[in-house]
Protein backbone atom coordinates (compact mmCIF):
# COMPACT_ATOMS: atom_id res chain seq x y z
CA UNK A 1 0.00 0.00 0.00
CA UNK A 2 1.35 3.36 -0.87
CA UNK A 3 2.61 5.77 1.73
CA UNK A 4 0.07 8.28 0.48
CA UNK A 5 -2.78 6.05 1.46
CA UNK A 6 -1.34 4.34 4.51
CA UNK A 7 -0.68 7.49 6.51
CA UNK A 8 -3.74 9.24 7.83
CA UNK A 9 -3.25 12.94 8.27
CA UNK A 10 -5.42 15.79 9.40
CA UNK A 11 -7.59 17.22 6.70
CA UNK A 12 -6.92 20.72 5.49
CA UNK A 13 -9.61 23.39 5.69
CA UNK A 14 -10.15 23.14 1.93
CA UNK A 15 -10.77 19.39 2.26
CA UNK A 16 -13.32 19.92 5.03
CA UNK A 17 -15.10 22.54 2.94
CA UNK A 18 -15.18 20.32 -0.14
CA UNK A 19 -16.66 17.43 1.85
CA UNK A 20 -19.14 19.81 3.49
CA UNK A 21 -20.30 20.99 0.07
CA UNK A 22 -21.06 17.39 -0.89
CA UNK A 23 -22.85 16.90 2.44
CA UNK A 24 -25.16 19.80 1.69
CA UNK A 25 -25.70 18.34 -1.77
CA UNK A 26 -26.90 15.06 -0.23
CA UNK A 27 -29.19 17.05 2.08
CA UNK A 28 -30.72 18.92 -0.87
CA UNK A 29 -31.26 15.67 -2.77
CA UNK A 30 -32.92 13.66 0.00
CA UNK A 31 -35.03 16.65 1.06
CA UNK A 32 -36.29 17.02 -2.50
CA UNK A 33 -36.99 13.29 -2.81
CA UNK A 34 -39.09 13.16 0.37
CA UNK A 35 -40.87 16.47 -0.16
CA UNK A 36 -44.07 15.12 -1.80
CA UNK A 37 -44.74 12.98 1.28
CA UNK A 38 -45.02 16.11 3.44
CA UNK A 39 -47.36 18.04 1.12
CA UNK A 40 -49.15 15.17 -0.59
CA UNK A 41 -52.74 16.13 0.26
CA UNK A 42 -52.70 19.80 -0.86
CA UNK A 43 -50.51 19.00 -3.87
CA UNK A 44 -52.91 16.31 -5.08
CA UNK A 45 -55.93 18.57 -4.58
CA UNK A 46 -54.32 21.46 -6.45
CA UNK A 47 -53.28 19.28 -9.39
CA UNK A 48 -56.66 17.54 -9.53
CA UNK A 49 -55.34 14.00 -9.02
CA UNK A 50 -55.77 11.39 -6.31
CA UNK A 51 -53.30 11.17 -3.45
CA UNK A 52 -52.25 7.78 -4.74
CA UNK A 53 -51.40 9.28 -8.13
CA UNK A 54 -49.52 12.15 -6.50
CA UNK A 55 -47.57 9.64 -4.43
CA UNK A 56 -46.13 8.18 -7.61
CA UNK A 57 -43.92 11.27 -7.71
CA UNK A 58 -41.82 9.54 -5.04
CA UNK A 59 -41.96 6.11 -6.68
CA UNK A 60 -40.91 7.47 -10.07
CA UNK A 61 -38.01 9.38 -8.53
CA UNK A 62 -36.69 6.21 -6.86
CA UNK A 63 -37.11 4.22 -10.08
CA UNK A 64 -35.14 6.71 -12.15
CA UNK A 65 -32.47 6.99 -9.45
CA UNK A 66 -31.91 3.25 -9.67
CA UNK A 67 -31.71 3.31 -13.46
CA UNK A 68 -29.54 6.43 -13.57
CA UNK A 69 -26.94 5.22 -11.06
CA UNK A 70 -25.07 2.80 -13.35
CA UNK A 71 -26.09 4.68 -16.52
CA UNK A 72 -24.56 8.01 -15.50
CA UNK A 73 -21.25 6.28 -14.74
CA UNK A 74 -21.31 4.79 -18.24
CA UNK A 75 -22.06 7.96 -20.21
CA UNK A 76 -19.99 10.67 -18.50
CA UNK A 77 -16.66 9.31 -19.71
CA UNK A 78 -13.71 11.36 -18.46
CA UNK A 79 -15.52 14.63 -17.81
CA UNK A 80 -14.31 16.43 -14.67
CA UNK A 81 -16.44 15.10 -11.80
CA UNK A 82 -16.82 18.60 -10.37
CA UNK A 83 -18.66 19.62 -13.54
CA UNK A 84 -20.87 16.54 -13.26
CA UNK A 85 -21.76 17.38 -9.66
CA UNK A 86 -22.60 20.94 -10.65
CA UNK A 87 -24.80 19.70 -13.48
CA UNK A 88 -26.64 17.42 -11.04
CA UNK A 89 -27.28 20.40 -8.75
CA UNK A 90 -28.79 22.22 -11.73
CA UNK A 91 -31.15 19.26 -12.24
CA UNK A 92 -32.27 19.55 -8.60
CA UNK A 93 -33.02 23.25 -9.06
CA UNK A 94 -34.81 22.68 -12.36
CA UNK A 95 -36.89 19.79 -11.01
CA UNK A 96 -38.13 21.58 -7.90
CA UNK A 97 -38.79 24.83 -9.77
CA UNK A 98 -40.79 23.03 -12.45
CA UNK A 99 -42.92 21.28 -9.82
CA UNK A 100 -43.49 24.56 -7.98
CA UNK A 101 -44.88 26.29 -11.08
CA UNK A 102 -46.69 23.52 -12.92
CA UNK A 103 -50.38 22.73 -12.92
CA UNK A 104 -49.89 19.67 -15.13
CA UNK A 105 -49.50 16.25 -13.53
CA UNK A 106 -47.32 14.91 -16.33
CA UNK A 107 -44.95 17.88 -16.07
CA UNK A 108 -44.70 17.02 -12.38
CA UNK A 109 -43.73 13.43 -13.19
CA UNK A 110 -41.19 14.55 -15.80
CA UNK A 111 -39.63 16.94 -13.30
CA UNK A 112 -39.38 14.17 -10.72
CA UNK A 113 -37.64 11.98 -13.29
CA UNK A 114 -34.95 14.67 -13.54
CA UNK A 115 -34.57 14.57 -9.78
CA UNK A 116 -34.17 10.79 -9.92
CA UNK A 117 -31.33 11.20 -12.41
CA UNK A 118 -29.66 13.70 -10.07
CA UNK A 119 -29.99 11.37 -7.07
CA UNK A 120 -28.69 8.36 -8.98
CA UNK A 121 -25.77 10.27 -10.44
CA UNK A 122 -24.74 11.95 -7.19
CA UNK A 123 -24.68 8.86 -5.00
CA UNK A 124 -23.14 6.70 -7.73
CA UNK A 125 -20.19 9.10 -7.95
CA UNK A 126 -20.06 10.07 -4.26
CA UNK A 127 -17.70 7.32 -3.12
CA UNK A 128 -15.20 7.92 -5.92
CA UNK A 129 -15.32 11.68 -5.42
CA UNK A 130 -14.78 11.40 -1.67
CA UNK A 131 -11.82 9.06 -2.16
CA UNK A 132 -10.21 11.52 -4.57
CA UNK A 133 -10.59 14.22 -1.91
CA UNK A 134 -9.43 12.33 1.21
CA UNK A 135 -7.81 8.99 0.09
CA UNK A 136 -9.26 5.49 0.36
CA UNK A 137 -8.22 4.93 3.99
CA UNK A 138 -10.38 7.87 5.07
CA UNK A 139 -13.30 6.87 2.86
CA UNK A 140 -15.43 5.83 5.82
CA UNK A 141 -14.88 9.15 7.57
CA UNK A 142 -15.60 11.09 4.41
CA UNK A 143 -18.72 9.11 3.54
CA UNK A 144 -20.01 9.37 7.11
CA UNK A 145 -19.95 13.16 6.79
CA UNK A 146 -21.61 13.10 3.37
CA UNK A 147 -24.31 10.73 4.66
CA UNK A 148 -24.94 13.05 7.61
CA UNK A 149 -26.60 15.30 5.04
CA UNK A 150 -28.86 12.43 4.05
CA UNK A 151 -29.73 11.63 7.68
CA UNK A 152 -30.33 15.31 8.43
CA UNK A 153 -32.67 15.48 5.46
CA UNK A 154 -34.63 12.50 6.78
CA UNK A 155 -35.05 14.24 10.13
CA UNK A 156 -35.55 17.85 9.09
CA UNK A 157 -37.10 17.85 5.62
CA UNK A 158 -40.53 16.27 6.26
CA UNK A 159 -41.29 18.44 9.29
CA UNK A 160 -39.95 21.64 7.73
CA UNK A 161 -41.73 21.01 4.44
CA UNK A 162 -45.00 20.39 6.28
CA UNK A 163 -44.60 23.66 8.17
CA UNK A 164 -43.77 25.65 5.03
CA UNK A 165 -46.61 23.99 3.14
CA UNK A 166 -49.15 24.80 5.84
CA UNK A 167 -47.96 28.40 6.16
CA UNK A 168 -47.14 29.43 2.60
CA UNK A 169 -48.54 26.65 0.41
CA UNK A 170 -47.05 23.47 -1.02
CA UNK A 171 -45.46 25.26 -3.98
CA UNK A 172 -43.31 27.34 -1.66
CA UNK A 173 -42.01 24.11 -0.11
CA UNK A 174 -40.69 23.07 -3.53
CA UNK A 175 -39.20 26.52 -4.11
CA UNK A 176 -37.39 26.17 -0.78
CA UNK A 177 -35.99 22.84 -1.99
CA UNK A 178 -34.89 24.57 -5.21
CA UNK A 179 -33.13 27.14 -3.02
CA UNK A 180 -31.30 24.32 -1.23
CA UNK A 181 -30.18 23.03 -4.62
CA UNK A 182 -28.95 26.50 -5.56
CA UNK A 183 -26.98 26.78 -2.32
CA UNK A 184 -25.43 23.36 -2.96
CA UNK A 185 -24.50 24.54 -6.46
CA UNK A 186 -22.81 27.66 -5.08
CA UNK A 187 -20.97 25.77 -2.34
CA UNK A 188 -19.66 23.15 -4.74
CA UNK A 189 -18.68 25.80 -7.29
CA UNK A 190 -16.50 27.50 -4.67
CA UNK A 191 -15.36 24.67 -2.40
CA UNK A 192 -15.10 21.58 -4.59
CA UNK A 193 -11.78 21.30 -6.41
CA UNK A 194 -11.38 19.94 -9.90
CA UNK A 195 -11.77 16.15 -9.78
CA UNK A 196 -10.37 14.80 -13.06
CA UNK A 197 -11.56 11.32 -13.98
CA UNK A 198 -8.92 8.61 -13.67
CA UNK A 199 -10.83 6.23 -15.94
CA UNK A 200 -14.15 5.77 -17.72
CA UNK A 201 -16.67 3.10 -16.74
CA UNK A 202 -17.69 0.60 -19.43
CA UNK A 203 -20.18 -2.23 -19.70
CA UNK A 204 -17.33 -4.73 -19.56
CA UNK A 205 -16.01 -3.20 -16.35
CA UNK A 206 -19.48 -3.37 -14.76
CA UNK A 207 -19.71 -7.01 -15.79
CA UNK A 208 -16.26 -7.61 -14.36
CA UNK A 209 -17.27 -6.13 -11.02
CA UNK A 210 -19.98 -8.73 -10.61
CA UNK A 211 -17.31 -11.45 -10.86
CA UNK A 212 -15.58 -10.18 -7.72
CA UNK A 213 -16.75 -12.00 -4.60
CA UNK A 214 -16.41 -9.02 -2.19
CA UNK A 215 -18.52 -6.93 -4.57
CA UNK A 216 -21.22 -9.59 -4.71
CA UNK A 217 -21.18 -9.86 -0.92
CA UNK A 218 -21.57 -6.10 -0.60
CA UNK A 219 -24.47 -6.04 -3.03
CA UNK A 220 -26.29 -8.86 -1.23
CA UNK A 221 -25.70 -7.20 2.14
CA UNK A 222 -26.94 -3.88 0.74
CA UNK A 223 -30.06 -5.60 -0.58
CA UNK A 224 -30.73 -7.19 2.81
CA UNK A 225 -30.06 -3.99 4.73
CA UNK A 226 -32.11 -1.55 2.69
CA UNK A 227 -34.88 -4.03 1.95
CA UNK A 228 -35.18 -5.00 5.61
CA UNK A 229 -34.95 -1.42 6.86
CA UNK A 230 -37.65 -0.12 4.52
CA UNK A 231 -39.92 -3.06 5.27
CA UNK A 232 -39.91 -2.22 8.97
CA UNK A 233 -39.76 1.55 8.80
CA UNK A 234 -42.62 1.90 6.30
CA UNK A 235 -44.98 0.18 8.71
CA UNK A 236 -43.46 1.36 12.00
CA UNK A 237 -46.30 3.76 12.77
CA UNK A 238 -49.12 1.23 12.11
CA UNK A 239 -47.26 -1.28 14.30
CA UNK A 240 -46.88 1.17 17.20
CA UNK A 241 -50.52 2.20 16.88
CA UNK A 242 -51.90 -1.34 16.69
CA UNK A 243 -49.52 -3.32 18.92
CA UNK A 244 -48.26 -0.54 21.17
CA UNK A 245 -51.56 1.27 21.50
CA UNK A 246 -49.84 4.62 20.90
CA UNK A 247 -51.51 7.74 19.55
CA UNK A 248 -50.04 9.85 16.77
CA UNK A 249 -48.91 12.39 19.36
CA UNK A 250 -47.02 9.66 21.25
CA UNK A 251 -45.45 8.21 18.11
CA UNK A 252 -44.04 11.52 16.86
CA UNK A 253 -41.35 11.77 19.61
CA UNK A 254 -40.35 8.16 18.97
CA UNK A 255 -39.80 8.84 15.26
CA UNK A 256 -37.89 12.03 16.12
CA UNK A 257 -35.55 10.10 18.43
CA UNK A 258 -35.09 7.49 15.72
CA UNK A 259 -34.22 10.18 13.18
CA UNK A 260 -31.77 11.97 15.47
CA UNK A 261 -30.11 8.66 16.33
CA UNK A 262 -29.67 7.91 12.63
CA UNK A 263 -27.86 11.23 12.29
CA UNK A 264 -25.54 10.22 15.13
CA UNK A 265 -25.06 6.80 13.55
CA UNK A 266 -23.92 8.39 10.30
CA UNK A 267 -21.54 10.65 12.21
CA UNK A 268 -19.72 7.93 14.16
CA UNK A 269 -19.81 5.13 11.59
CA UNK A 270 -16.80 6.44 9.68
CA UNK A 271 -14.41 5.73 12.56
CA UNK A 272 -15.39 2.06 12.64
CA UNK A 273 -15.61 1.75 8.84
CA UNK A 274 -12.01 2.94 8.41
CA UNK A 275 -10.44 1.00 11.30
CA UNK A 276 -12.50 -2.12 11.99
CA UNK A 277 -14.82 -2.56 9.04
CA UNK A 278 -16.01 -6.14 9.53
CA UNK A 279 -16.54 -5.78 13.29
CA UNK A 280 -18.36 -2.47 12.90
CA UNK A 281 -20.39 -3.77 9.97
CA UNK A 282 -21.44 -6.92 11.83
CA UNK A 283 -22.26 -4.93 14.98
CA UNK A 284 -24.46 -2.60 12.94
CA UNK A 285 -26.63 -5.46 11.72
CA UNK A 286 -26.75 -7.13 15.13
CA UNK A 287 -27.87 -3.83 16.65
CA UNK A 288 -30.61 -3.55 14.04
CA UNK A 289 -31.75 -7.11 14.74
CA UNK A 290 -31.73 -6.67 18.52
CA UNK A 291 -33.50 -3.31 18.32
CA UNK A 292 -36.19 -4.76 16.07
CA UNK A 293 -36.71 -7.78 18.32
CA UNK A 294 -36.85 -5.41 21.30
CA UNK A 295 -39.59 -3.38 19.63
CA UNK A 296 -41.50 -6.58 18.99
CA UNK A 297 -41.09 -7.84 22.55
CA UNK A 298 -41.68 -4.61 24.48
CA UNK A 299 -44.22 -2.76 22.36
CA UNK A 300 -46.31 -1.94 25.42
CA UNK A 301 -43.44 -0.29 27.36
CA UNK A 302 -43.06 3.31 26.21
CA UNK A 303 -39.56 3.83 27.64
CA UNK A 304 -38.35 0.60 26.02
CA UNK A 305 -39.76 1.76 22.68
CA UNK A 306 -37.63 4.91 22.92
CA UNK A 307 -34.49 2.91 23.74
CA UNK A 308 -34.93 0.41 20.94
CA UNK A 309 -35.99 3.11 18.46
CA UNK A 310 -32.75 4.97 19.24
CA UNK A 311 -30.73 1.79 18.66
CA UNK A 312 -32.68 1.21 15.44
CA UNK A 313 -31.80 4.73 14.29
CA UNK A 314 -28.10 4.29 15.10
CA UNK A 315 -28.01 1.14 12.98
CA UNK A 316 -29.80 2.56 9.95
CA UNK A 317 -27.59 5.66 10.10
CA UNK A 318 -24.38 3.60 10.22
CA UNK A 319 -25.44 0.99 7.66
CA UNK A 320 -25.07 3.06 4.46
CA UNK A 321 -21.61 4.31 5.52
CA UNK A 322 -20.42 0.79 6.31
CA UNK A 323 -21.84 -0.65 3.10
CA UNK A 324 -20.42 2.10 0.88
CA UNK A 325 -16.98 1.68 2.49
CA UNK A 326 -17.10 -2.09 1.96
CA UNK A 327 -17.99 -1.56 -1.69
CA UNK A 328 -15.18 0.97 -2.11
CA UNK A 329 -12.61 -1.40 -0.70
CA UNK A 330 -13.99 -4.21 -2.85
CA UNK A 331 -13.25 -2.30 -6.06
CA UNK A 332 -10.88 0.63 -5.45
CA UNK A 333 -10.01 0.67 -9.14
CA UNK A 334 -13.67 0.94 -10.24
CA UNK A 335 -15.24 3.18 -7.62
CA UNK A 336 -17.72 4.85 -9.93
CA UNK A 337 -18.87 1.59 -11.49
CA UNK A 338 -19.32 -0.12 -8.15
CA UNK A 339 -21.08 2.98 -6.82
CA UNK A 340 -23.57 2.79 -9.67
CA UNK A 341 -24.26 -0.90 -9.07
CA UNK A 342 -24.62 -0.27 -5.36
CA UNK A 343 -27.19 2.49 -5.76
CA UNK A 344 -29.18 0.41 -8.23
CA UNK A 345 -29.29 -2.37 -5.62
CA UNK A 346 -30.36 0.13 -2.96
CA UNK A 347 -33.33 1.26 -5.03
CA UNK A 348 -34.24 -2.35 -5.83
CA UNK A 349 -33.97 -3.20 -2.13
CA UNK A 350 -36.18 -0.27 -1.18
CA UNK A 351 -38.80 -1.35 -3.70
CA UNK A 352 -38.70 -5.00 -2.66
CA UNK A 353 -38.74 -4.07 1.04
CA UNK A 354 -41.86 -1.97 0.64
CA UNK A 355 -43.57 -4.75 -1.36
CA UNK A 356 -42.54 -7.46 1.12
CA UNK A 357 -43.69 -5.34 4.06
CA UNK A 358 -47.04 -4.65 2.43
CA UNK A 359 -47.64 -8.32 1.70
CA UNK A 360 -46.58 -9.27 5.22
CA UNK A 361 -49.00 -6.75 6.77
CA UNK A 362 -51.91 -7.98 4.67
CA UNK A 363 -51.24 -11.67 5.33
CA UNK A 364 -50.05 -11.65 8.96
CA UNK A 365 -50.48 -8.26 10.60
CA UNK A 366 -48.63 -5.05 11.45
CA UNK A 367 -45.84 -6.84 13.34
CA UNK A 368 -44.85 -8.96 10.32
CA UNK A 369 -42.69 -6.32 8.55
CA UNK A 370 -40.51 -6.03 11.67
CA UNK A 371 -39.90 -9.77 11.54
CA UNK A 372 -38.74 -9.23 7.96
CA UNK A 373 -36.35 -6.53 9.19
CA UNK A 374 -34.92 -8.72 11.95
CA UNK A 375 -34.46 -11.68 9.61
CA UNK A 376 -32.67 -9.60 6.99
CA UNK A 377 -30.41 -8.05 9.63
CA UNK A 378 -29.42 -11.44 11.06
CA UNK A 379 -28.70 -12.86 7.61
CA UNK A 380 -26.55 -9.82 6.77
CA UNK A 381 -24.62 -10.13 10.04
CA UNK A 382 -23.90 -13.81 9.41
CA UNK A 383 -22.80 -13.09 5.84
CA UNK A 384 -20.35 -10.38 6.98
CA UNK A 385 -19.01 -12.54 9.83
CA UNK A 386 -18.12 -15.34 7.41
CA UNK A 387 -16.29 -13.16 4.87
CA UNK A 388 -12.92 -11.48 4.82
CA UNK A 389 -12.72 -7.72 4.71
CA UNK A 390 -11.76 -6.49 1.21
CA UNK A 391 -8.04 -5.66 1.21
CA UNK A 392 -8.64 -2.19 -0.23
CA UNK A 393 -6.16 -0.50 -2.53
CA UNK A 394 -3.26 -2.23 -4.22
CA UNK A 395 -0.02 -0.84 -5.54
CA UNK A 396 -1.47 -0.98 -9.02
CA UNK A 397 -4.36 1.31 -8.18
CA UNK A 398 -2.83 3.52 -5.50
CA UNK A 399 -1.52 6.12 -7.91
CA UNK A 400 -4.92 6.43 -9.56
CA UNK A 401 -6.49 7.26 -6.21
CA UNK A 402 -4.21 10.14 -5.29
CA UNK A 403 -6.25 13.00 -3.82
CA UNK A 404 -7.49 15.69 -6.19
CA UNK A 405 -5.86 19.08 -5.87
Automatic annotation (TrEMBL):
Pfam assignment, any one: MFS_1
Gene3D superfamilies: MFS general substrate transporter like domains
Ranges that cross the membrane: 52-76, 83-101, 113-133, 145-164, 170-195, 215-236, 248-273, 285-318, 338-361, 368-386
InterPro entries linked: MFS (IPR011701), MFS_dom (IPR020846), MFS_Efflux_Transporters (IPR050189), MFS_trans_sf (IPR036259)
Cell location: Cell membrane
Bilayer topology: Multi-pass membrane protein
Domain Major facilitator superfamily (MFS) profile: 18-392
Record carries keyword Acetylation: no
Chief place where the protein resides: membrane
Keywords on record: Cell membrane, Membrane, Transmembrane, Transmembrane helix
PANTHER family registered for this protein in UniProt: PURINE EFFLUX PUMP PBUE, PURINE RIBONUCLEOSIDE EFFLUX PUMP NEPI
Name the record gives this protein: MFS transporter
The species this protein was found in: Mesorhizobium retamae
Record lineage: Bacteria, Pseudomonadati, Pseudomonadota, Alphaproteobacteria, Hyphomicrobiales
Amino acid sequence: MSATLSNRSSWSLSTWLSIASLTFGSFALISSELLPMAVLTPMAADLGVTEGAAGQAVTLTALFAGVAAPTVALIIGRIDRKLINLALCVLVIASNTAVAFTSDYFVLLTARMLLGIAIGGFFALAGATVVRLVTLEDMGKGMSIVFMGLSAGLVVAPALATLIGETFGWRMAFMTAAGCGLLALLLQSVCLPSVPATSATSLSSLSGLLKRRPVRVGLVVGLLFFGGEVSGFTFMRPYLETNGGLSAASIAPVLLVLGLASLLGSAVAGVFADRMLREGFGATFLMLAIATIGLLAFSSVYVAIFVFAAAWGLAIGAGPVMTQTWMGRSAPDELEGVGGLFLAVIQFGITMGAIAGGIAVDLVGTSAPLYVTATCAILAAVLIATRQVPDGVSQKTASALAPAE
